[in-house]
Amino acid sequence: MLNTSSKFKQKFKDFNKKILKKRYAILLIPIILFLIFFYILILKDLPSPTRLTSSSIPQSTQIFDRKGELLFTIYGKKNQTFVPLSTIPKYIQQATIAIEDKDFYQHGPIDIRGIARSVIAITLRNQIQGGSTITQQLVKNSLLTPERTILRKVKEVLLAFATESLYSKSQILEMYLNQSPYGGTAWGVEAASQTYFGKHAKDLTLSQSSLLAALPEAPTTYSPFGSHPELAKKRQEEVLRKMYEEKYITKSQMEKAIREPLRYKNLSNTIKAPHFVLYVKDLLIKKYGEKTVEQGGLKVTTSLDLSIQDMAQATVAAEVADLKFSRVTNGASLVTNPATGEILAMVGSHDYFDTENDGNVNVTLARRQPGSSIKPINYAVGLLNGYTAATPFVDQKICFPNPGHQPYCPVNYDGKFRGVIQVRQALANSINIPAVKMLKINGIEAMIATASAMGITTFTDPRRYGLSLTLGGGEVTMLDMVTAFGVFANGGYKVPLHPILKVTDSKGKVLEEYKPPPSPIFGKKILPEGVAFIISDILSDNQARAMAFGTNSPLRIGNLPVAVKTGTTNDFRDNWTIGYTPSYVVAVWVGNNDNKPMSGLVSGITGAAPIWHDIMENLLKGKPPQPFQRPLSVIQKAICSDTGSIPGKDNSCKTRFEYFI
């Protein structure tokens, strides 16, 4: 009987256990389904807070001139530059906390009291008041999409807790100040500071700091560049009052900051030296790739000197304006240091923003005919072949056979002939017929080989050129011409152009750096020093060129030794002046981008030459003369002025001194 009762009780217990298990199973199903649902909707695609660190966010690349002046900021969708909290002024930090989350350092990831205040404000005063903490705003701006849904709010809260478990309050504030939207493409206080005030964030005043702190809540509404700039001022004053209430500033500081006028950066000045900046950008993309340049936070120090750039730009613009009645619509210039190859100024057009005349085209990179400015290379080949500055040529009418075509009959710029003329005067006065005769003797292949060695990259096939090559019959770029003339300035040594001095990544690691050797002469030797010196001496001989240019032309810079050569194409489409000292090479071009001819009034000294003169004069102002150093291989002898020969024993001829190798 007892056994039967025990068995019954046991069966009853087993039955109850089965019922309970089924009930538990039934209860677990919705819990499991909820967890699956929660994972799929919320956790599965929830981004990691580790993406908030500076190494994970895209950063803009900044291009500076040689003295640290910001020229341009390169970015993709966002203009963003990370700066550590230690360099962000306390005013910006305090202003942000005061207006966005006054109890930031006291509460956790979410602010219950702040949420309560928001509810009360909405319920009792019908005022919309934010309840999100700085941490919530950070994850909302940087990790989540902008839609306003309950699901996104849940993700925001979860990420806020995760973020505060990984980072300190100071780290979170640093990330917030570097990743918040401040209007347009400006993200973060550094980009915002540059956008609105044209300065680094570390240099902002209290008044400026409070303006920036006012923007993240509604960057478009409060933008000082928007349609209602008065709202920006009103919001700034609210920020200052909050700072005073939180005892970050005194009442007098608040009142002074409110009175301080806010002077904003001119939006048209967002890029300085635009042709040069875009030239450097292309070089960076070729080397590092577009993604790295737009998002890698590179700091690029260039060789450009903005003060020289501005002077050269203004000079080109003024002269082109004066030349408009001569049918000239554009001009360009390059200034380099031949000893180091550094580009100090690049004026790609008279006005980058002149859309009517394609001002955005960088003429310093374009192929144009150089006119007679190419002649010094031809004469350098002649000196290599044993000819001298005293070698006489007969300047008279001549025609050269041209198989399959009409004979080639060069003429001088003025249509005159001068009889016997020596190389010095022929080159200095840019007489065409002796130059063509010299090329006929040297050979086109020899001139092309020397020009290519000196830096001319466009003379690729000798079969394309005839004897007119020495008069500018082959196209060149201004970049190549300053490199080639730099060989003369350097005493025969070629130094490649170096527009970039230093590149660092977002962490400060040096990726490349150009440090010219201390020696005054380095690079590849292209010409003997004696050849380079004699060419420079001829081109700086103001008396020798007086026949064509007079003694007081724009080619003269006071009594300073400056070598210079002009060039004008026979159809008046291109007009050049290129000159140099041991410290500077200055090249100038005027013409039209559409290749229309200029007026015949534009000559060797009325087009590019005045621009060249003013730029070079400004560069040399206050500096001591730099004569071209005569090498030991060059000697000086007395010669007969009319024939170039050595005087006989009777010494009956009028003499002058000439240099010989």
List the helices and strands and how they pair.
Elements: H1 2-43, E1 61-64, E2 70-74, E3 79-80, H2 90-100, H3 112-125, H4 134-143, H5 150-166, H6 169-179, E4 186-187, H7 189-197, H8 206-213, H9 229-245, H10 251-259, H11 274-288, H12 290-295, E5 299-302, H13 306-322, E6 330-337, E7 342-347, H14 375-384, E8 392-395, E9 419-422, H15 423-428, H16 432-442, H17 444-454, H18 478-489, E10 493-494, E11 500-504, E12 510-513, E13 524-525, H19 529-539, H20 546-549, E14 563-568, E15 574-580, E16 585-591, H21 608-620, E17 635-640, E18 655-660
Parallel strand pairs: 1-5, 3-4
Antiparallel strand pairs: 1-2, 5-11, 6-7, 6-16, 8-9, 10-13, 11-12, 14-15, 15-16, 17-18
Helix pairs in contact: 2-8, 2-9, 4-5, 4-6, 8-9, 9-10, 13-21, 14-16
Tell me what you see in this structure.
The protein is α+β, with helices and mostly antiparallel strands and 661 residues long. The chain has three domains: 33 residues; 182 residues, Penicillin binding protein transpeptidase fold (Orthogonal Bundle), CATH 1.10.3810.10; 328 residues, DD-peptidase/beta-lactamase superfamily (Beta-lactamase, 3-Layer(aba) Sandwich), CATH 3.40.710.10. The protein is built from 21 helices and 18 strands. The strands form six sheets. The protein has a five-stranded mixed β-sheet with strand order 2-1-5-11-12. Strands 7-6-16-15-14 form a five-stranded antiparallel β-sheet, sandwiched between helices. The protein has a two-stranded parallel sheet with strand order 3-4. A hairpin with a 5-residue loop joins strand 1 and strand 2. Helix 2 runs parallel beside helix 8, helix 2 crosses helix 9 and helix 9 packs antiparallel against helix 10. It is elongated.
